[in-house]
Structure formats: C-alpha cells, structure tokens
Amino acid sequence: MGKTTNSLLSAGEIALEGRVDIEALRTLHLGTCKEFDLPDHTSQEIERLINECQDMLNGVRLIQELSPKSLDQLVSYGERCSVRIVAGRLNQIGVPAQAFDAWDVGVFTDDNFGDAKLLPDTIDSIKDRFEKRIDPNVVAVVTGFIGKCLYACTLTGMCAKIYCQ
Fold first, then answer.
1. Domains of the chain, start order
2. Are 154 and 164 in contact (CB under 8 A)?
3. In the chain, which end has fewer C-beta atoms inside a 10 angstrom radius, N or C?
4. Rounded to a whole number, what is the largest CA-CA distance in the chain?
C-alpha cells in the first residue's frame, strides 16, 4: 500500500485534466480485502470511502481547482482505507481491534492547509477520548497524520494527511 499517497496525488492531477480515475486505489484496497477474506462490512467501508473520494475528484474535475484544502482531503483517503483493513485483519486473527479516524480520538489541528499543527489541547483531548470512549480491551488502529480543525482540512508535513468533514 506504500504508493497510495502518490496515486491519490496523481488522481488529483488527472482530475484537473478532466478525467477521474481511481481504479488503482479501488483495485489495491478492495483486492487486499479479498486476498485476506476480510468481512463484508470492511469491504463496504472501503468501498464507501473510495466512492466518496471519487465524488470529491469529480468536484475537482468540474471546478478545475485542487486547493490545498481539497488536496488535504484527497490524500487522507489512503490512510483512512488502510486502517480499516489493518483493523479487519487484526480481528480476523483474533486480536480485537477497531479502526478510527484521528479526529474520532481527539486529534485537532489549526487550519494551515498542507502544514497543520496540533492544537495545544490535543493531547488532553486524546487522553479524554481514550479514557471515556474507547474500549481498553480493543486495539485502536488510528490514522496517522490525520486530524480535524474547526471548519477545514489541513496537511501536517510530508505525505501527511488531515481531513475535516
């Protein structure tokens, strides 16, 4: 899965040229689900994310713009798909696990697209979420480099992703 971010960046450039093509992403992630014989709900979550990514790229194609905000959202999809596959595989081999997008465990950032920084209270937010909302008997498989700001998506460093709804 190591080239997913580059594939997503290429998909963004292709969308700017007027085409949407994420079949490499779809094939890689759904093929991995099939190869590991992961449960249907895992494949369905992956399919939902890939379809969302495709919709987002159609928007890029239509408006002919890939802003830093959109770029941060775009590159988040690989990480978001991957944690679901890892959690599914862990469950399959008997290790209770659950996938989380980082914002679900309290990772919050500023809105500096492409180079976001964690907000000062993020560590406390993460501790609070883990203490109150996450089962300590389950491995939390959390997206890396993804967080949430109040109103937009941001990126934190090289090949890092921040997504905001």
1. 4-142 (3.40.1160.10)
2. yes
3. C
4. 48
pTM: 0.87
Q: Which amino acid is at 5?
A: T
Positive or negative torsion for Cα 123, 129, 131, 137: negative
Task: State pLDDT tens for residues 13-43.
Answer: 999 999 999 999 999 999 999 999 999 999 9
Q: How far apart are CA 39 and CA 48, in angstroms?
A: 15
Task: Kindly give the residue spans of alpha helices, DSSP state H, lying in the chain.
Answer: 4-16, 23-35, 40-63, 68-92, 122-132
Residue 157 CB contacts under 8 Å (≥ 6 apart), including other chains? 115, 145
Distances (CA, A) of 18 to 8, 59, 70: 15, 10, 16
> What 3-state class would DSSP assign to 99?
strand
Lookup: tokens for 89: 């595989």
Report d(CA 17, CA 111) in Å as an integer: 28
* Per-residue confidence (pLDDT) for residue 150, from 0 to 100: 65
Which residue in the block uniquely carries the two structure tokens 């007027």? 18
pLDDT digits (tens, 9 = 90+) for 48-79: 999 999 999 999 999 999 998 899 899 999 99
